[in-house]
What we know:
Blueprint (H helix, E strand, L loop, with lengths): L6 E7 L17 H12 L3 E7 L5 H8 L6 E5 L5 H15 L2 E5 L1 H5 L1 H5 L6 E3 L4 H10 L13 E4 L5 E3 L32 E4 L2 E2 L10 H4 L11 E2 L2 H14 L5 E4 L8 H14 L4 E5 L6 H10 L1 E9 L3 H7 L6 H13 L3 E8 L6 H14 L3 E6 L7 H8 L22 H9 L1 H13 L2 H16 L5 H25 L1 H11 L6
Parallel strand pairs: 1-2, 1-3, 3-4, 4-5, 8-11, 11-12, 12-13, 13-14, 14-15
Antiparallel strand pairs: 5-6, 6-7, 9-10
Helix pairs in contact: 1-6, 2-3, 9-10, 13-16, 15-18, 16-17, 18-19
Amino acid sequence: MQTPSVKLLLVYPDFTDSDTPRKHSGGNYSEGLASISAVLKNAGVGVSLLHLLYEHDKDQFLEKLKGYDFDLIGFSVRTTAFEYVKKLAGWAKEATGKFIFCGGYHPTLVPDEVLAVDGVDAVCIGEGEYPVLELCQRFWQKDEDFYRIQSFHFKTPEGGVIRNPVRPMLENLDELPIPDFDLFDFDNLTASKTGSALVMMSRGCLFSCTYCGNSQFRNVYPNRKRYARFRSFENSLLYLKTLLKKHPYIQFLNFRDAIFNMYDDWFYGFMEVYKKEIGLPFTCNLRLDIMTEETVRVMKEAGCYLIDVGVESGDEEIRHKYLKRMMTDEQMIHAFSWFHKYGITSLTYNIVGLPFEDLHKALKTIKLNVKLNPDKVIPNIFYPYPMTILADIARKAGFVPDVIEPGTKVPLKQEQFPEHEVLFASYYFLTFLRLYRFAGKLPGALGRGFSRMCDGVFVGRLTPRKALVKLYEGADRCNKGLRRTVSKRLPGVYMWLRRRRNKIAAA
């Protein structure tokens, strides 16, 4: 189909509650938006990006819109930004009258909720490249065919709703063009300022962790069994070489694939060609229960300097019964011994505030991290993403309020684990990790006594947790401001510190 001269504006709200209007550069790369842009531009559609780095008020947003020429607006919507996008869509419709659609994770999971927003004309469900291309191709016609585009739900002029089936996902990722890195102000992205780039060689995931959207995203497609896909070795190298040619200052690659070692044949083959033809230090996410010592050795030889691992919970009942992560403590401890053996920095992701958790169970997560001895630890607070299995479990238990307000730090309301205790466990996770590590270095009874004292402070009734939470929040604001200043004004110092922290030799 011949594509008329259509111009699409993509709007990408990309910020957290801590980002302020002083932020004028930075932000994150979005693989999905870059891929959509590449497909559309190849077909002659004009694409531009409004990359929002902080929350704008109405006047600020509309002033930004004036700087773009467009026929349609597409909003990228994540769950935690949905309430803000609702305002943006209303302002944009009122000011421009343009056709507005939304896509991304949140519209895929709860399309009716997004389509009900004033100002939104349609939602795209699932992968957006070719549905959005067809939308642009048919935009000028506005006949019945316009409202029959697969993977789209539409509001009709008469006030009805048309829900079209989702088209099959693209099974061969090599059929996609290389993402449009130029869509972004790439050199000023947060990662770029430290010589890094976020890249993805795959889509989807084999596993069904209950807290993750992947467990539900695959179910929207008729060919769901093909959900976890990788680019070929040749196409993966073309992707990386294209990026590095455009931005030769990149010194680190951050593979953001859900699980880098999903398929042995792909993983070992790609590591071999990557080592020969790219060779840059890289990070990635691994799944511990499908890896071996050989996995770690091969990655080290290919240039891996940091491995991300989801520990999530140190309580085996929660991990097995509610998260459906069946790995044991012993499996994880064994895997981390390989990271230490081969000198790869390890990072664990952990969740506090899970359904049915309390301080005692959160403490188990800290103590498991002590046994694993990772180099870096990130504690996150659980968020009940729509349509995920764990969100349904929490909702049925009465833990999820009817509305989770924007900026809410602890979404679940649990009597046995109130908000200030969840914040305390999250904020002081690293502090107690260090204390228990120190206890482990003390001799015999002295170490056991110090450890029991830490237990008492963490779970004890007399600990002033509310006051400690406020103290932490004030100190954290100062610390984040200092890090932003160093990375922005002294990037050389920041990169030197990063290399030293991760034990990476200078190029």
